[in-house]
């Protein structure tokens, strides 16, 4: 080979090597400057962990699906069951028959007419504190379906077009992991009525969500349900309501429902022999399930507080964390709970006074919300 040819070959080889080195160096620099690199890496690790707990391995996911997979909730992470929910037995039974059974036993709900099967969407609506989110938790625990607890912040991104890709990844992941339930708490904040002054990105996200949920290319054999909870159903877009044919009104508990809720909450509590459950049920008219839980929590604290105040602090240093170090807490003598504890006034916090104010406020506000809800939806859906 001529010396001149050797020189040309060496120059070409050197140029090729320099270009390869430049490519990888440039790629490394750009990658180190990528602000989303750590986020994607964290999402991949978390999604692998979540899917691994579910026994799913070697499932190929896109980078957007990995972000959505971080929202998947394993049933073992939730300890609420339908048995722990009082006063909502008819709704629970309907959820079993219309949601859980079609998802878990598709062979029973298959027909040529396509009339059987799970609905595309389910809406739980009613006043605050009446058990909507608790029902969703129990559904996640007992359905044995992939439960995606979707936070709207997961779908938002500062880069144009990324939110639509995340919405698309939501349904593609749900399809890979079906049967699946996509839960959106306070769905009215995301799927509110569309207006001409809405931001362009918000409108695009809603359109993408609806077309993938129930659009032209949506198959009838998919086992994906969108579950929403709200106390403002009149703010939800009509196109969204159309896609949620199953709607359950979670109203303030009746007297019988309050009795059921209180019996569940107090079943493991040491009650006085003179405790009158019926009197407590009557005096809590207008309370929601959340109000009843807080009332029971405050009442259960009173005997404990009395015991703590009866014990002399053993620490002379005046440090609160060491006050009870010398007390035999295994053999503590705490009196049973009495009816008066539920309505006692704590001088430090005036809890009962606050509860009274809360009760009058909640009764009025819950009634107002209930009226708005019933005015917002057709009467035949409320009966």
Automatic annotation (TrEMBL):
SMART domains: AAA. Keywords: ATP-binding, Membrane, Mitochondrion, Mitochondrion outer membrane, Nucleotide-binding, Transmembrane, Transmembrane helix. The keyword Membrane applies. The keyword Flavoprotein does not apply. Pfam families: AAA, AAA_lid_3. Residues 118-258 form the AAA+ ATPase domain. One of its GO terms (biological process) is extraction of mislocalized protein from mitochondrial outer membrane. It is found in: Mitochondrion outer membrane. The chain crosses the membrane at residues 12-30. It is a single-pass membrane protein. GO terms for cellular component: mitochondrial outer membrane; peroxisomal membrane. SUPFAM superfamilies: P-loop containing nucleoside triphosphate hydrolases. GO terms for molecular function: ATP binding; ATP hydrolysis activity; membrane protein dislocase activity. Belongs to the AAA ATPase family. This is AAA+ ATPase domain-containing protein. The lineage of its organism: Eukaryota, Fungi, Fungi incertae sedis, Mucoromycota, Mucoromycotina.
């Amino acid at each position: 080979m001529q010396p001149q040819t050797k020189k040309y070959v060496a120059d070409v080889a050197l140029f090729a090597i320099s270009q390869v080195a430049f490519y990888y160096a440039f790629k490394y620099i750009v990658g180190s400057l990528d602000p989303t690199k750590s986020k994607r890496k964290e999402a991949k690790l978390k999604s692998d962990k979540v899917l691994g707990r579910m026994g799913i391995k070697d499932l190929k996911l896109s980078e957007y699906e990995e972000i959505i997979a971080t929202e998947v909730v394993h049933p073992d992470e939730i300890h609420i069951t339908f048995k722990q929910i009082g006063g909502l037995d008819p709704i629970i039974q309907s959820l079993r028959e219309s949601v859980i059974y079609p998802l878990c036993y598709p062979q029973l709900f298959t027909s040529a007419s396509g009339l059987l099967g799970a609905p595309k969407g389910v809406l739980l609506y009613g006043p605050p504190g009446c058990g909507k989110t608790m029902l969703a938790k129990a559904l996640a625990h007992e359905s044995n379906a992939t439960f995606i607890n979707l936070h709207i912040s997961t779908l938002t991104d500062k880069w144009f077009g990324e939110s639509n890709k995340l919405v698309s990844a939501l349904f593609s992941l749900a399809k890979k992991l079906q049967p699946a339930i996509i839960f959106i708490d306070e769905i009215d904040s995301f799927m509110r009525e569309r207006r001409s002054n809405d931001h362009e990105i918000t409108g695009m996200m809603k359109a993408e969500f609806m077309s993938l949920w129930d659009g032209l290319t949506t198959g009838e054999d998919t086992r994906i349900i969108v579950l929403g909870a709200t106390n403002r159903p009149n703010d939800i877009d009509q196109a969204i309501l159309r896609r949620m044919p199953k709607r359950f009104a979670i109203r303030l508990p009746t007297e019988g429902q309050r009795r059921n809720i209180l019996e569940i909450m107090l079943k493991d509590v040491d009650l006085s022999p003179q405790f009158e459950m019926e009197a407590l049920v009557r005096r809590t008219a207008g309370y929601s399930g959340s109000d009843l839980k807080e009332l029971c929590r405050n009442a259960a604290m009173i005997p404990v507080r009395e015991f703590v105040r009866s014990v002399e602090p053993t620490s002379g240093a005046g440090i609160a964390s060491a006050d009870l170090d010398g007390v035999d807490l295994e053999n503590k003598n705490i009196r049973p709970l009495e009816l008066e504890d539920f309505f006692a006034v704590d001088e430090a916090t005036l809890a009962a006074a606050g509860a009274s104010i809360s009760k009058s406020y909640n009764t009025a506000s819950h009634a107002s919300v209930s009226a708005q809800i019933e005015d917002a939806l057709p009467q035949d859906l409320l009966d």
